[in-house]
Amino acid sequence: MKHLISLKKWKKKDIEKIFELTNKLKGKKSEDLFEKNLILYFEKPSTRTVVSFYIGMVQLGGDAIYLTPREMQISRGESVSDTAKILSRYADGIVARVFKHNTIKDLSKYAKIPVINGLSDMYHPCQILADLYTVLQKRKTLDLNFAWIGDGNNVCKSWINASKIFKLKLNIATPKKYQPIEKVSGKIKLTNDPKEAVKDADIIITDTWISMGEEKEKKKRLQAFKKFQVNPKLLKSAKSNHLFMHCLPAHRGHEVTSKIIDGKHSIVFDQAENRLHVQKAILYQLMK
Ligand code: CP
Ligand code: NVA
Question: What number is the average pLDDT over the span 61-86?
Answer without folding.
Answer: 97
